[in-house]
Amino acid sequence: MIRTFVGLALIIFLIGCSNQPTADYEYWKDKTQNLVFRLNKANIDYIIKEGEDGTQEVWVNKEKFEEVEECCG
Questions:
Q1: Is residue 50 exposed (0-12), middle (13-18) or buried (19+ Cβ within 10 Å)?
Q2: Which residues, if any, are the signal sequence (predicted)?
Q3: Angstrom distance (rounded) from CA 36 to CA 62
């Protein structure tokens, strides 16, 4: 009984952890201080992610992509 409960709890936990934060974000540009300043000033939702080549990338919320192009394109 306890094993079943623990197993079920573990499965639920792992399913919750599998949601990647970049799922709702799209790559925009490599990070610069000026770009981050403009995104913050425009109140745009973004995350910083390390790229394959070690550079820092700006990933923008897909729903805000048009706003990003207007303010920071």
A1: exposed
A2: 1-23
A3: 17
φ and ψ at residue 61, rounded to 5 degrees: -55, 125
C-alpha–C-alpha distance, residues 25 and 61, integer Å: 4
68 CB burial (10 A radius; 0-12, 13-18, 19+):
buried
Sheet holding 25-30, edge to edge: 25-30, 56-61, 46-50
Tell me the CA distances in angstroms from 6 to 15, 18, 19, 24, one per residue in order: 14, 18, 21, 31
- Whether the model clears a pTM of 0.70, i.e. scores above it, the answer is no
Q: What is the pLDDT of residues 4-37, one digit of tens each?
A: 655 555 455 545 554 455 569 999 999 999 999 9
| Location of structure tokens 């394959």 | 52
